[in-house]
Design brief:
Number of domains: 2
Strand order of the largest sheet: 2-1-3-10-6
Distance between the termini: 74 Å
Order of helices and strands: HEHEHEHHEEEEHHHHHEHEEHHHHHHH
Oligomer: single chain
Structural class: alpha+beta
Length: 442
């Protein structure tokens, strides 16, 4: 049977053109998921510079707190949902997700200056000889202490303090009547919150998460000593409601003069030294992270980086943005537009080589040294089967660390703190998880 071919109405062509134009516009959107910290917010302010270099491109940001970011991004990359073209990930995700095929490997362009990246940071994002993320900023951990309060108390602390010395200083400097806590530490539960600090405390006390047979070690003397010290410091010499405080909350407290000491990320030095943001600027000494029986694993290693998910709809454009945001040119842009105090730290030798950067960031030497000394491939004194200092490089650690973090938070809320009971329950959680995953067999 013959079919009559009718002329196409004029409006069909218009509809096709409009749909094509809309699709083209959408295709030039670059959707980036990121965490709500200071350096990432500066990056968003700088984004129009990238858009001017790439006419027709619109960068759309999805900015979340750290815990919500991990939840939403993990769900999207696991299902290849394609919601995000570029992700802000940490060293843990770069290690685990690359092994699952969730991230695209990155071959930087010839002008990217890969050799300028600090080796520990570059290595943390490299698997099988391939980069799976480009570092936006890197960090280790350090001790910050108010020099004016130390002087008033007639005290000093060495450049490499011990946890015992830190505890003694916290006791002496604790002054609740004046609204000053002796020490601020992360109390908010989560594998990237309280357990980031607690894991380093366990490491430096000679402990580990798992032995070489993947048997959890959470009831060991090292864990008991570390958790007893942690809970005593926060309960006796910490700020009120310390269980609610993560990095951002403690940064606000310390900058407002409410903490005499703070052990946390080196990136905090960028903010507590800014006179327009911190009441204690110029009155802070930057020291290495405290140690106990061993220096191994006493300081963490982390990098917030830009990674391209396997489901990205704009992988080439995503790589161009990642290279731009982590390049020496971006460092120069931020230095010119905002100031050297706002430059993202912890990634490039060329940044630390700048006298203006070192002058604006008095913690820079401590930060670089801490990053260079951190070894995530041998994080503990006893041999361990995993990589990662304040995390364990297996997919299951996200749930293990979060569950244990909830239990550890109970120590700040119950009286008296039941350290042995918490560790017994934490041991059972970790053992069940690794047994179910097949790491540990009878």
């Amino acid at each position: 049977m013959a079919h009559t071919r009718w002329p196409r109405p004029w409006f069909v062509g218009v509809v096709v053109w409009l749909l094509g134009t809309a699709t083209s516009a959408l295709a030039r959107d670059l959707v980036i998921a990121t965490v709500n910290n200071g350096h990432m917010l500066t990056l968003q302010r700088m984004t129009p510079h990238f858009e001017r270099l790439h006419p027709g491109v619109r960068v759309r940001w999805v900015t979340l707190d750290e815990d919500r970011l991990r939840q939403q991004v993990t769900r999207d990359v696991a299902t290849r949902g394609g919601r995000f073209d570029l992700l802000t990930v940490g060293s843990y995700e770069a290690k685990v997700w690359s092994g699952r095929g969730w991230l695209r490997p990155i071959t930087p362009s010839a002008g990217y200056a890969t050799d300028d990246l600090l080796p520990p940071v570059r290595d943390a994002l490299t698997q099988g000889g391939k980069l799976y993320a480009l570092p936006f900023y890197g960090e280790s951990s350090m001790t910050m202490v108010r020099t004016d309060l130390l002087a008033a108390a007639g005290m000093t602390l060495p450049l490499h303090p011990t946890w015992e010395q830190v505890a003694q200083a916290a006791r002496r400097l604790h002054d609740p009547q004046r609204g000053v806590a002796g020490i601020c530490l992360r109390g908010k539960p989560g594998w990237g919150q309280n357990m980031a600090l607690v894991s380093t405390m366990v490491n430096t006390h000679g402990g580990q998460w798992f032995d070489t047979k993947w048997q959890p070690q959470l009831t060991s003397p090292a864990w008991r000593r570390a958790l007893t010290l942690y809970s005593d410091l926060l309960r006796r010499h910490g700020p009120p409601a310390a269980v609610a405080n993560g990095y951002n909350e403690n940064l606000a407290l310390f900058s407002a003069g409410r903490c005499a000491m703070w052990v946390d990320a080196t990136v905090a030095g960028n903010f507590v030294s800014r006179g327009n943001e911190s009441r204690v600027a110029g009155q802070v000494a930057f020291l290495h992270a405290p140690v106990a029986s061993t220096a191994r694993g006493a300081r963490w290693l982390w990098t917030w980086s830009l990674a391209i998910p396997a489901g990205s709809r704009q992988p080439e454009l995503a790589q161009r943005f990642a290279e731009w945001a982590s390049s020496p040119a971006y460092v120069a842009l931020v230095a010119r537009e905002v100031g050297w105090h706002a430059v993202p730290p912890g990634t490039r030798e060329s940044t630390y080589a700048q006298p203006a950067y070192r002058m604006a960031n008095p913690h820079a030497a401590i930060e670089r040294e801490a990053i260079m000394l951190a070894d995530q491939n041998r994080p503990t004194e006893p041999p361990s089967p995993y990589v990662g200092i304040q995390w364990v490089g297996i997919p299951e650690f996200q749930s293990i660390g979060t569950a244990v973090g909830q239990l550890v938070a109970e120590l700040l809320q119950t009286a008296p703190p039941r350290v042995d009971e918490v560790l017994t329950r934490a041991q059972a959680v970790a053992e069940r998880k690794v047994r179910e995953a097949g790491y540990m067999t009878d």
